[in-house]
Amino acid sequence: MKKAVYIRVLTLLKLFLPVLLFSGCALFEPDNNYRRPVDFVRHLDSRGIKVNAVRMLDPAPIGAGDALELIIGRSAIGVYKYDINIPSQRNRLEKIRKSRRIYFNGIPYPIYETSGSFIVVGLDKHKEKQRIIEALRSFR
Q1: Residue 91 and which of 6, 80, 111, 126 are 20 to 30 A apart at CA?
Q2: Residues 73 and 54 sit within 8 Å (Cβ to Cβ)
């Protein structure tokens, strides 16, 4: 009796373990696909990072779904959101995660961190780089 139960449990684990491991980002990344870049602006503000100005950006050049330019201090950063429910955007985000860079007009820009559906561009020489990355990590 115990052996039969053990075999059934082991069989179920064999079936469901690959599904859990390869089910996508939800297990390993923050689930923030329902959020918008405007929510990230509020999150930065709540973390004590003052955003001086916000402007709309065209997300199409990098295949994102939504984008904003934020002026923090004297520097600008771009916040891009990929909708992981859209296969083309999900695939693009996966490529960015693997390569850790994005290209604008053939020029590579480093991506230091991805968090769920979001990336931030332009942190190279930003004075608040570490604080912005920490805020991105906690953005859920």
Answers
A1: 126
A2: no
Q: Which residue has the tokens 């690959």?
A: 18
Dist CA 74 CA 84 (whole Å): 32
Residues 6+ apart with CB under 8 A from 68: 37, 38, 40, 41, 54, 55, 56, 57, 78, 79
Q: Are the beta carbons of 96 and 119 closer than 8 angstroms? A: yes
Sheet strand arrangement including 118-121: 53-56, 66-72, 75-81, 118-121, 114-115
> pLDDT digit of tens for each residue in the chain (140 aa)?
666 655 665 565 566 655 444 544 444 556 899 999 999 999 999 999 999 999 999 999 999 999 999 999 999 999 999 999 999 999 999 999 999 999 988 899 999 999 999 999 999 989 999 999 999 999 98
Phi then psi for residue 70, to 5 deg, are -115, 130
Q: Cα(25)–Cα(4) distance, rounded to whole angstroms? A: 34
pTM of the prediction? 0.79
